[in-house]
Every structure is written in structure tokens, then in C-alpha cells.
């Protein structure tokens, strides 16, 4: 690796161990017409170089590095000998690492003026300026449109932005974070996740051989990137351009931890090679979530199952990635990895395992001047939307006659499959990809198709999808866990009648989701806890402490009658909801009884007081948002242990004191329906009555399970 000495503006070579490379700054910029090359910096004098306009960028970069305490800086234009194909290939494969192990990255926007020079002289200090929070004028810089600058934004641990006069106007992880993420499409979680054990700071300690030189822990950037779906990462680059077609693939190597040889002259085939390498390395079916443009594609030029261009990922499906690496529960990690679907790629097909559902597709065919009906197949991917874990994306496939060979058709479409709807007929526009879920069996216009499918005919199958007709990564998002009924995400669904409210969680085990918010990662696995209860096969599911802030109007107690003034008041109701699943014990020679859900609702404070199993149990002041609130992880741990202790036989007949009288903690039988429970008034106010009922519902479809706690307040 060559570095430019910031004091002499001359190159120095470091061929030893990475740990011997000194700390250095690194430059991210866009190239102009007359850049300072390796030959220029090694053969010309500094005086000759100073006459070149492009040397200003090099000189100011060195000056800035010295001001920040660095003796070296790396600049791609002059630190790589591009006349050597071997060196160029090595540099391209190492570029992401070089940016990752830099101490500080300077993003130089040569076409943006921050306005620093127009400030009064008294305010021109330290060559820095703070842009107003709503200032996005730097968005127009060419730097945001180039392919190579994406990895230069992501890989470094610290990034500072400079205008054309080398005035620093913000940092990536500081005041510019939200704006940079909005402009680039990169999710802010990528930059907020800790990359090592060091406390946050700017600049961050350098990295060598993948290890932070300060805390001596691994830099987790590759694992953090792996938590994002392939299609999402592709979408970050979809609107960017490169001078050469091949660079559209080569600039993404580091983003996917891929190494491959450079073959300039192969054109768009480089992007196909990149996807094939991703398929071999990862298991993420989201690589199939690309969409061609609305124009019809002649069959002889139709792509296969791999995307022809990166720009086809421009409008990504909102897919949940893997769980953040640092948050994976090690008890389930081995099983999680072991349940990844196998996948391989050959010269002709990509083989993987999909849910396959037959469907009938009706479309207008100009060759027959009428509608045609084709039997096709929905290839339902093992992925989850970030706002609905049960729904899945699917692509349309045509069976090729061989036992398990298919080709992708209707490349413009990604079809959302909701297993709650067994029999569905929906219309899709080939121009705008807008779904209409109203029942229809007839075409509305010549630019739409109608898909009729029945999910009760779906089955899982190993399939081969033709490469020449676009890669796949199969992640099981419902790994098989220890014994007990199947588990899945828990969703709260609240319905309020003629009132305004706000619901907050005080603590929950397992965590719950809301359909109104989007998930950022696959839900963590959890298990039911078997109860040691006599005469019943009972499992404990969840404990949820929630509070409702109710906005209501009432007449104050004054002497203003008969003209009282209504006052808006806020009241809080505290609720504990527990639930699980149970069935009558199996009799000898008889079949198993069906599972039945049970749900119990209590005043939260009474529950915490009466259901204490240990001094370790939570107190009201330790819940979320309270004065002595514990960390989310600690609340989870304590609630999990309390749930385990409540399964002891001594609590089977336990009672919880309520305002209406004692109430059994668990169902007292299996003969009645226990899936719904209620409280006549969740408020501690005799003048206002707010009734709450809760019902637990389990949905199973396509190998996944989901629970809903349907809460009704009125």
C-alpha cells in the first residue's frame, strides 16, 4: 500500500504487516479531467505540480491531514499505478478495506460552496461552518451520483464533509446523518450500530487486519452489512453511475465482501458475475426482488433470474434483514444457521427451495387481439416485509416441462402474498405496479393482468430457475426451537371507539410489534414455557405491561350548572396481559386434543404486587419510561425469569386482587373458551369508565406462525 506523505507530498510504500501501516486520512472525491496521477506525483517536481489546477485538491488534502494530526493521506488518483493491470485489480479488491481501516475520511465536494467565504471575518474560525438543519443544498453535488463513492461513504469509521474551498461543514455520523441517509437511501441503522467496543468518538480508532487498534476487538462492519437484505443494499447503488459499465459491479465488491478478478471489456456481464458470487456466498432470496421497467421485453432478450442491471433494484421491497449480529441469542444461533435453505448455482440454473403456488394469469395479447389465460406459478420467497411478518413477496414463474425447471416471467412485478387470504383474485398494473385487491376476474385495461390463486394448493419444492431467461439466498426466518408449540412474532392490534389514546409499553416478554411501525430486523426467536400444572397441558406465552393514556372530556364539579364547560382530561390506565396455549391431557388410546389459546387481563399494579415470585421481579418504577427504568435487556431478562417461576405448580391456583374482586391467574379449566378476557374499567376513576377487552389469535400459514393480541377499548 502506498501513502502520500502529508508533509512532503511524496509517496511512501508500506509492504510489511498491516499493523505497521501508520494512521492515515483518506480522500473521497469525484474525478476531474486533469487529475494528478501516479506518474505525475513520482516524476514531476512540486513546482511543476503546483501549476496544475488539480494539484489544489492534493495539496489541501495534505494540509488538512496535518491539521488533524496525520502524517499520511491516501488519494486514489496518485497512490495507484493504473498502468499496471495487476496493481489495479488488487487495488479495486482492497479499496473497501483501505477506506475501512482509515482513521478519517475527507469527502471533498468540488462543486459545492458552503458560503463560508461570505461570512464576516470574525466568524471565519477553524475553517469550519455549521449548516442550518434544513440546508440540503449540498445534495446537488456530483459526489452523490457516483458508484465508487457509496463504499467511500460506508466503509470508513469517521467521515467529514468539505466544500470546494476545503471548509468542513459536517460529519456523517453527526449533524448530517439524517440528511445524508435521506439523500443516499442508506438506512441510518448502518451507522448507528457499534462497530467495536470503543465508545463513540470522532475520529474513531484505526483498524488493521479487521481489528480495532484501540479496543482490540473485531470491526463488525461486515457483520452489520450482512444484516441488510441484498436487495436493500443493491438499492443504495441503483441510482448511481460509473464511467465504465464494469465498475457498476466492481464498486460493490466490498459492500458484499466479495473478491473477483477484473475483466474490463465484459460490460454488463460483470454485474451478473457479481450476483453469482453473492449467491454462492450468501443465502438471501431478496436478490430476486428486482423489477424491470414497464416496457415489454422480447422473449429472446428477456433476462433470467438474475438482474441485468443494478438500476432494477431502484424501488426496493421493504424486506426485513437478518437480526443484528450482536443481538443474536447464542442459544438459537446454531439452529438458525443450520436451517438456512440450501442453494447452488450451475451453468444453467439457480437451485433453491421455494413455496410454489399455482395461479392463473390473464393478460391482453396483441398477437391474438384478445385475452389469454396462462397457468403460471407464484414462487413465494422465504422473506418477510418489515410491516407484516406473515406476508411474503413472490415472483411469477413458468414451468418448463422438466420436473423442477422454471423461468421467471413478468419481470416488472413483485407480487405480495398475504396468507390470510386463501383465495384471491387481484389486478396488477404492468405500468405502475399498483395492486388492486378488489375481487375481479376480468381485465380492466390492456396494461394490467389478473392473478387468481388459491394458497391451499401451495407446497414447498426444490426448484431450478433458469439463469438465462434473474440470484437467491434462502433464510429460514422461523427456525425450529426447543419443544413446545410453534412460536412467532406477537402483534398488538388496538381498536379504540370514539376516543383518543396513546399506548406505551412498560415491559414485554416476548417483545411485541405494531402493524403501524416498520420492523428493522427479523423478530428474535422465543419459546413457550411449559407449566407444571396438574390435569392440563399448559404453556405460558407472554407477559405484557402496557399503559393507555386516554384523552376524554368531562364536566367539572362546579356550581356552574346549567352551563358547565367541558374539560379535556388525560387519564392513564395500567394493564397487565398474560397469555398462552393449553389443551386437555391426552387419554390413553385417544388422539391429542386441539390446542386452545388462553388470555388473562389484570390491573398492572395489582398484578405486580400479587404475582411476585422473587425480589428480582420488576417494580413499577423500573419499567420503561419510569423514573428508575432499567435497560430493555434487563427488563426482558427479569420478565422471562418471572414467567418461568409462574409456571411452578404452586401458582396454578393463584389469585390476583382486582377492584372487582379476586381473579384467577390462570384458566381454571380447558372446557370453556379462555382466549378473551376483559376489565370493566382500566382507570382508577369512578367518574370515567374505560372498558378493555383483549383476545389472543394465532395464525399459521406457509410454515410460519404469528400471534395477535387484539385489544378493544371503549
What descriptive keywords fit this protein?
Heterokaryon incompatibility domain-containing protein, alpha+beta, 5-stranded mixed β-barrel, single chain, 31 strands, 15 helices, 18% helix, 714 residues, 7-stranded mixed beta sheet, globular, HET
Describe the 3D structure.
Residues 24-152 form the Heterokaryon incompatibility domain. InterPro entries: HET. The chain has 714 residues and is an alpha+beta fold. The chain has three domains: 2-226, no CATH class; 312-466, no CATH class; 490-713, no CATH class. 18% of the residues lie in helices and 27% in strands. The strands form six sheets. The protein has a seven-stranded mixed sheet with strand order 2-1-4-3-5-6-7, sandwiched between helices. Strands 11-12-13-14-19 form a five-stranded mixed β-barrel. Strand 1 and strand 2 form a beta hairpin. It is globular. The termini are far apart. Residues 330-339, 433-439 and 470-483 have low confidence and may be disordered.
Amino acid at each position: 500500500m502506498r501513502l502520500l506523505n502529508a508533509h512532503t507530498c511524496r509517496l511512501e510504500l508500506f509492504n510489511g504487516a498491516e499493523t505497521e501501516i501508520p494512521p492515515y486520512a483518506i480522500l473521497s472525491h469525484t474525478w476531474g479531467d486533469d487529475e494528478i496521477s501516479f506518474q505525475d506525483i513520482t516524476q514531476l517536481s512540486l513546482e511543476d505540480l503546483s501549476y496544475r489546477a488539480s494539484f489544489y485538491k492534493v495539496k489541501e488534502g495534505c494540509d488538512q491531514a496535518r491539521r488533524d494530526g496525520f502524517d499520511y493521506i491516501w488519494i486514489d488518483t496518485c497512490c495507484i499505478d493504473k498502468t499496471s493491470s495487476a496493481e489495479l485489480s488488487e487495488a479495486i479488491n482492497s479499496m473497501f478495506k483501505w477506506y475501512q481501516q482509515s482513521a478519517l475520511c475527507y469527502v471533498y465536494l468540488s462543486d459545492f460552496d458552503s458560503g463560508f467565504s461570505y461570512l464576516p471575518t470574525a466568524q471565519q474560525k477553524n475553517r469550519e461552518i455549521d449548516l442550518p438543519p434544513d440546508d440540503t443544498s449540498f445534495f446537488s453535488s456530483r459526489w452523490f451520483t457516483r458508484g465508487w463513492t457509496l463504499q467511500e461513504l460506508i466503509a470508513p469509521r469517521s467521515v467529514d464533509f468539505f466544500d470546494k474551498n476545503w471548509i468542513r461543514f459536517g460529519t456523517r455520523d453527526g449533524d448530517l446523518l439524517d440528511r445524508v441517509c435521506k439523500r443516499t437511501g442508506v438506512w441510518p441503522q448502518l451507522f448507528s450500530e457499534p462497530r467495536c467496543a470503543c465508545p463513540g468518538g470522532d475520529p474513531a480508532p484505526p483498524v488493521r487486519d479487521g481489528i480495532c487498534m484501540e479496543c482490540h476487538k473485531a470491526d463488525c462492519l461486515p457483520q452489520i452489512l450482512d444484516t441488510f437484505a441484498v436487495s436493500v443494499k443493491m438499492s443504495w447503488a441503483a441510482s448511481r453511475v460509473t464511467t465504465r459499465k464494469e465498475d457498476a459491479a466492481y464498486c460493490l465488491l466490498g459492500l458484499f465482501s466479495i473478491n473477483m478478478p477484473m475483466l474490463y471489456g465484459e460490460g454488463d456481464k460483470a454485474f451478473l458475475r457479481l450476483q453469482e458470487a453473492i449467491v454462492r456466498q450468501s443465502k438471501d432470496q431478496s436478490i430476486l426482488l428486482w423489477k424491470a421497467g414497464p416496457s415489454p421485453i422480447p422473449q429472446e432478450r428477456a433476462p433470467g433470474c438474475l438482474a441485468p442491471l443494478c438500476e432494477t433494484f431502484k424501488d426496493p421491497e421493504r424486506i426485513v434483514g437478518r437480526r443484528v449480529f450482536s443481538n443474536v441469542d447464542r442459544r438459537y444461533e446454531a439452529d438458525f444457521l443450520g436451517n438456512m435453505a440450501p442453494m447452488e448455482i450451475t451453468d444453467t440454473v439457480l437451485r433453491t427451495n421455494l413455496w410454489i403456488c399455482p395461479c392463473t394469469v390473464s393478460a391482453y395479447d396483441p398477437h391474438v387481439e384478445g385475452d389469454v389465460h396462462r397457468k403460471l406459478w407464484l414462487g413465494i420467497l422465504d422473506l418477510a416485509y418489515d410491516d407484516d411478518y406473515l406476508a411474503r413477496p413472490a415472483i411469477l414463474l413458468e414451468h418448463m416441462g422438466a420436473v423442477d425447471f422454471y423461468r421467471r416471467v413478468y419481470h416488472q412485478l413483485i407480487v405480495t402474498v398475504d396468507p390470510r387470504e386463501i383465495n384471491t383474485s387481484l389486478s396488477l398494473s404492468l405500468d405502475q405496479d399498483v395492486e388492486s385487491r378488489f375481487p375481479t376476474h376480468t381485465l380492466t385495461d390492456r396494461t394490467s393482468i389478473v392473478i387468481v390463486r388459491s394458497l391451499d394448493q401451495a407446497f414447498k419444492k426444490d426448484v431450478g430457475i433458469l439463469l438465462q431467461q434473474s440470484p437467491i439466498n434462502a433464510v429460514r426466518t422461523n427456525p425450529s426451537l426447543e419443544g413446545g408449540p410453534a412460536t412467532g412474532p406477537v402483534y398488538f392490534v388496538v381498536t379504540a371507539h370514539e376516543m383518543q389514546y396513546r399506548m406505551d409499553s412498560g415491559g414485554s416478554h416476548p417483545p411485541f410489534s405494531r402493524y403501524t411501525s416498520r420492523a428493522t430486523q427479523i423478530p428474535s426467536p422465543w419459546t413457550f414455557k411449559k407449566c407444571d400444572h396438574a390435569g392440563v397441558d399448559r404453556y405460558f406465552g407472554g407477559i405484557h405491561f402496557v399503559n393507555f393514556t386516554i384523552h376524554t372530556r368531562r364536566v367539572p364539579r362546579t356550581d356552574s350548572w346549567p352551563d358547565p364547560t367541558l374539560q379535556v382530561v388525560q387519564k392513564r390506565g395500567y394493564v397487565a396481559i398474560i397469555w398462552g396455549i393449553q389443551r386437555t391431557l391426552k387419554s390413553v388410546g385417544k388422539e391429542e386434543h386441539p390446542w386452545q389459546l388462553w388470555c388473562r387481563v389484570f390491573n398492572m399494579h395489582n398484578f405486580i404486587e400479587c404475582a411476585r415470585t422473587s425480589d428480582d421481579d420488576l417494580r413499577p418504577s423500573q419499567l420503561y419510561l419510569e423514573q428508575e427504568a432499567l435497560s430493555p435487556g434487563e427488563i426482558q431478562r427479569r420478565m422471562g425469569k418471572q414467567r418461568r417461576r409462574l409456571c411452578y405448580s404452586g401458582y396454578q391456583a393463584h389469585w390476583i386482587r382486582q377492584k372487582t374482586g379476586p381473579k384467577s391467574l390462570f384458566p381454571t379449566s380447558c372446557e370453556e373458551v379462555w382466549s378473551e378476557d376483559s376489565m370493566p374499567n382500566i382507570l382508577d376513576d369512578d367518574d370515567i369508565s374505560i372498558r378493555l377487552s383483549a383476545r389472543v389469535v394465532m395464525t399459521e400459514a406457509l410454515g410460519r406462525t404469528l400471534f395477535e393480541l387484539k385489544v378493544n377499548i371503549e
